[in-house]
Specification:
six-stranded antiparallel sheet, five-stranded mixed sheet, 27% helix, 6 helices, 272 residues
Length: 272
């Protein structure tokens, strides 16, 4: 099986696709807007608060926010402003949608893996991906689930060791509910989290995956990996847990400048 089978995603190559991609990149290709996304990720703020933090005028801040609202990366909800001598006033509070920063990293990473035939857009994608890595991406990778009931869900790998498995009603307290990746029970090809299907591990600066003796096995880019053997992961790798109906597939996205596998002369799929 070719090594890059899962590295390239084909698009429909229509003018409308490129037009929408260009609009999307135009919004993301502004460092001020990326900064806004970062500062409202956890704490909703009104326009004046955001304006003060980014050092731009009220009107310019409003324009930035409207562009981010248009592509669905932020939301606004009714709130109250800081007390003034005239009392408390209602304001709009803006916040990044849940998982929004991971979603941006996933979308731009996916576009970079596509066969973009427009040279200008392809070049802009590379530049914007670097900008996103520099401005808002964490050093931790993300996994994008493909197919099944939770298709498109983005999981951030927040710790150096993360277990992957299917939901188990009797496993409460056995796994880390905030950091381990627990799939819906519909993914029946995946071993329950109480006896994890696989684990993702950061060791000596290299991200790896290891099958924990699952029944259905674990594959990276279509190649079945050995049980209890640490296999190197690289940006864009396809991970498959189980086989056939009920399996789970993920795309592994890793911030480029934190991927040290090359520095250690290791390639995707290598066993260590």
């Amino acid at each position: 099986m070719p090594e890059d089978l899962y590295r390239t995603i084909l698009n429909d190559d229509t003018p409308l696709f490129y037009e929408r991609l260009s609009d999307y990149l135009s919004v993301l290709g502004n460092p001020t807007r990326l900064k806004i996304l970062k500062i409202i990720e956890k704490n909703p703020k009104d326009i004046r608060e955001i304006s003060n933090e980014i050092g731009t005028s009220y009107e310019n801040t409003k324009k930035h926010l409207n562009k981010l609202l248009k592509i669905g990366l932020i939301r606004k909800d009714a709130g109250v402003g800081k007390p003034t001598s005239k009392g408390i006033h209602a304001v709009w509070k803006y916040s990044t949608i849940p998982g929004g920063l991971e979603l941006i990293a996933r979308n731009v990473g996916s576009f970079c893996n596509m066969e973009i035939k427009n040279p200008e857009l392809a070049s802009r994608l590379v530049e914007i991906r670097k900008m996103i890595d520099d401005e808002i991406s964490s050093d931790m990778p993300v996994l994008v689930l493909l197919g099944g009931t939770d298709d498109g869900r983005v999981y951030t790998v927040r710790k150096n060791t993360v277990r992957l498995g299917r939901y188990d009603p009797f496993a409460k307290g056995i796994f880390d509910e905030e950091n381990d990746i627990v799939l819906d029970d519909d993914y029946r090809g995946v071993t329950r989290i109480s006896k994890p299907h696989a684990v993702i591990i950061l060791e000596d600066g290299v991200w790896c995956i290891m099958d924990e003796g699952s029944t259905g096995g674990t594959s990276v880019n279509g190649k079945l990996i050995g049980k209890s053997v640490r296999t190197v992961l690289s940006d864009g790798d396809m991970i498959e847990l189980g086989a056939g109906e009920g399996m789970a597939s993920f795309v592994f996205h890793l911030k480029k400048n934190s991927d040290t596998a090359d520095e250690n002369n290791l390639s995707s799929g290598d066993e260590i």
